[in-house]
Amino acid sequence: MDYSILIIKSSGWIFLLLSVMAFFAQAGDKVVIAHRAASGYLMEHNLPSVTLAVAMGSDYIEQDLVMTKDDQVIVLHDPTLERVTNVADIFPGRARRDGKFYALDFTLAEIKQLHLKEPYPNSGRFPDYNKNLTLSVPTFKEELELIRGLEKTLGRDVGIYPEIKQPWFHRKEGKDISMAVLRILRDYGYTAKEDKIFLQCFDPDELKRIHDELLPTLQMELKLIQLIDDNSGHETKVLQWGEWVSYNYDWVSSKSGLRTLSAYIAGIGLDKSMLVDQAGNLLRPELVSDAHSLGLVVHPYTFRREKESLPPYVASFEDLLEFFYFQVGVDGLFTDHCGDAVHFLQNRPPAPAAAAAVETAVEGEGSTMETLPARPAVDPVLPLLPAAPQAPALVPPEVSPVDAPSTPLIPAEPSQAPSLDPVPASNPRIMPIPGPVPVTEPVMPLVPSTGGIREQG
Ligand code: G3P
Ligand code: CA
């Protein structure tokens, strides 16, 4: 008997099996995080935008959270209101000395008088507010109630991905935003590791506090995501010798740092430019593999389909998604265009390598794997869905006011205005498939800023 043929045939089938397993693992496990809800289609952070993101099949809906003067938690990306509302028109004279209108200086009732506006109306996004359409800043409770309701009527879980914004700034202003957020989450039934929620924060010390102190106090366990900023950022500041300075994240993304964090976090989130440079070279291939070896997911941000937002090494949004999901190997990503990303994953053909391997392995067997679905179809649109047979657990919400001292008017510290950081879109080329480019130490490339739609994050 020719054993070599047997071995080759057996290994072919083993390879086939592994290829199929890898294929399904790759396709099925990737998640779409709706960045600031369906912000690429219907403004950021408002209830219709959340509904749209859910209807489009997003796996997770992101909420950026800040607090009001009267201790309410609202869904707003910046601690200030002027970028996305008409606050300057409605409350002139209420800005601080830096010219910004801080949510912490307004009651919820006042904030509810404001209208949201599209920050990028000239970039093909939703038209700016002006006449009859009035969208308002939602509270966190409103948004959770909407999502829980849709879970019931759609019959499927909808993930949430809340971010506690700048706890250092809130603390400086006398607010414990983390405790306020956790109490609301508990009230809406998010209490266990299995619940479909990732709780994210840029502040490593605060995330540790949440894990070590707050969650045990509230008898909760949640999946935590450590966000990683560059070292010049405003997201996290620490008081050093009487001065607020940017947090140094170098240790966080080191192998030993990740190992330390892996004791209590579920994953990391970081700007995609920290993983891939503008030429399409992998900056730190070991970061993704290190994270995965420690059981951590990697969720970079932010992916946008507008031409001026595409890095020069891809020709289309779909190329960018293909590159990050299946070559960089991330587990999910934050995108303004959640519907396009869901569509991409649902309709992605088999990965060329996997498909070729499968075809080779089954050659002569009269079968190909070309019809394998890339991702199980997600409920397409709202009205077509049957009512859920079973509702998710919903604990009746209770108001849990945060005990916070009155808010002194301290000269504003953070500057959270969007910094536009477009990328030159010249010389696009498709998928350079770079080999690992070793980089000595954390590289935080700064993208030149010349206009466009790419604000930080
Ligand atoms: O939270 C991760 C992602 O949203 C990027 O950050 O600035 O948009 O909140 P940002
Ligand atoms: Ca965020």
Series of secondary-structure elements, N-terminal to C-terminal: HEHHEEHHHEHHEHEEEHEHEHEHH
CATH architectural grouping: Alpha-Beta Barrel
Cofactors, ions and other ligands in the entry: SN-glycerol-3-phosphate, calcium ion
CATH topology descriptor: TIM Barrel
Compact overview of the structure:
The protein has a single domain (30-352), classed as TIM Barrel, CATH 3.20.20. The protein has 14 helices and eleven strands. 41% of the residues are buried.
Structure description:
The strands form 3 sheets. Strands 1, 2, 3, 4 and 11 form a 5-stranded mixed sheet that branches. This protein has helices spanning 3-29, 39-42, 47-55, 87-90, 108-111, 140-154, 167-172, 177-187, 204-217, 255-261, 285-293, 317-328, 338-347, 352-361; strands at residues 31-34, 60-67, 73-75, 159-164, 198-201, 223-228, 237-240, 243-246, 267-271, 297-301, 332-335. Helices cover 31% and strands 12% of the residues. Strand 2 and strand 3 (73-75) form a beta hairpin. It has 457 residues and is an alpha/beta fold. Calcium ion (CA) binds at residues 62, 64, 163, 457. Calcium ion binds at residues 62, 64, 163, 457.
